[in-house]
Amino acid sequence: MPTPSSIMDTNSFRAEHADRLGARDRELAARRGRLLGDAYRLFYREPVHLVRGQGQYLWDADGVQYLDVYNNVASIGHCHPAVIQAVAAQMAELNTHTRYLHGRIVDYSEALLATLPPAIDKAMYVCTGSEANDLAIRVAQACSGGTGIIVTREAYHGTSALTSGVSPALGSGQPLAPSTRLVPAPDRYRVDAPDLGLWFAAQVQAQIDDMAAHGIKFAGLLVDSLFSSDGVLPGPAGYLREAVDVVHRHGGVFIADEVQPGFGRSGEAFWGFARHGVTPDVVTTGKPMGNGVPVAGLFARAPVLAAFSDRLPYFNTFGGNPVSIAAAQAVLRVIQEEGLQQHSLSVGGQLLAALQALGTRHEAVGDVRGAGLFIGFELVADRQTRAPDRERALDVVEALRARRVLTSVAGPHGNVLKLRPPLAFQAGDIDWLVGALDEALAVTAQRG
């Protein structure tokens, strides 16, 4: 049997859970099962039937309110009025592809490129993060002349043929590409190294050497700078510099997957990679840039992109269409005008402190780390050995769902709560989250 997907299977509904549902939701789940492909998954042993969202809150079909501590796709909050108005207004005027002149895509490109290092001066648009990372891999391979891509051991970068081949988090049922190499994530909690940056650079170097030994030319390193699927590993800031130096010494391309770390999420910088003092060759983004509207992008240094774009035309039918770009413009404007990066830093800092204090009261909490409104809350069976406690983490997630707080797990052991709310999350929501988590930890300890 293949190993399960850490991002799909660890917290999913299964047919044997159906008896827990009321008649309405049991029928809906059964209809879904009959009509949708078997690859789909639902969250929770008792799935949540959601019908409405606003800001950081969601409501189910019975009118019960939930706190969303997981959904970064609705980056500035569910159903944000600015996005709704921008999309509706543009949809009423025109929506078409990018082979006609239209001002929005140019205006947005100027505005977004202004947030990036000056060396990154070209933009391309697609509809999803998977497409952005797929294109980025093609660009890296064209620029380097190689095929080998290095990612971390629990990375997730997409669902296309190329990106699933560099996404070990999808589980062993999805084979990795023969030219993919894996490195352990820079986990300060579990890696005993005096300098995490030098340690990580050595891991990258070892895999470049392995590629060479097998006749594979190195193309690039692709990482999410908060190592989200690896268990949320934000620090210490700066530890990517040495690894990026290794990549460049070997003629490779550094791709920063900013689908999750970007757009002010870390609070410390607008882009996750900026916390490390590095300039990527390619930056990719996903649907959070449009608050869930299908829009994503690739932003690159012109010389890096040239090896691809000078040889091949590229056309993504509705990538960068006026309606999706209107959503992206609204998101960027809200982040900047409402100071959401600083908000993420401030409120995220308060939340991190509250969660760390909670951790001192529960032996099951091994580590609490984060940057802005992106926090990893790691559960262990033993603090001394740091043995991961996956079952406890899953039980805690279910206990939180019962207390109307929605989140999930991450990391290779499935034992890290991934706390990543919309940026609409407020200081006033901290008590709800921390109180529910306190109760969930207590209840699951009694079960043990």
Automatic annotation (TrEMBL):
Alphabetized InterPro entries for the sequence: Aminotrans_3, Aminotrans_3_PPA_site, PyrdxlP-dep_Trfase, PyrdxlP-dep_Trfase_major, PyrdxlP-dep_Trfase_small
One function term, GO molecular function aspect: transaminase activity
SUPFAM superfamilies, alphabetized: PLP-dependent transferases
Needed cofactors: pyridoxal 5'-phosphate
Organism domain of life: Bacteria
PANTHER family: ALANINE--GLYOXYLATE AMINOTRANSFERASE 2-LIKE (PTHR45688:SF13), PTHR45688
Name of the protein: Putative aminotransferase
Organism of this sequence: Orrella dioscoreae
